[in-house]
Design a protein that fits this description.
Helix content is 32%, strand content 31%. It has a 7-stranded mixed β-sheet with strand order 1-2-3-4-5-7-6, sandwiched between helices. It is built from 4 helices and 7 strands, in the order βααβββαβαββ. The chain is α+β, with helices and mostly antiparallel strands. It is globular.
Amino acid sequence: MPDVSLRPAGPADRPVVERLWLMFRHDMSEFDGRLPRADGTFRDDRLHMAFSDPDWAPYLLTDGAGSPAGFAFVRGLADPTRVLNSFFVVRGARRTGVGLRAVQEIAARHPGAWEIAFQDANAAAVRFWRRAATRIAGGAWTEERRPVPGRPDVAPDVWISFRTPAEVHG
């Protein structure tokens, strides 16, 4: 597995994460049908929450040379269940183990109950999140479909749930 570094993203990292966010939203537009706004940007309320709400934690993934490889946003830090709200790995780093390692490290940093949503239409995400849940929780994870709030026009999201014991490490 290649070197990957995962660290909390601070204010100085925000411009990098904002650029990665555009790539993430571009990738997701294939599944949610959302187009950019007139200025070429996408909806970014989650990005703003990740950097401003104390109940959220933004992370930056970098490769061994320090190049940005992706990001992750965790919300619900003060809640009984954490949610991996947004997760992105740059295409050039996908299928290298970087994403799986990052998810394991994030889960280990925030032990307890977890939920992760994705779309059935995103076959790569389906495979990835099932593999990640199995790697982290063995067979002790569940999967269910839930309607997307305010979006009756789209297919339900798939939600994976599991618990991370404090001793889990990547």
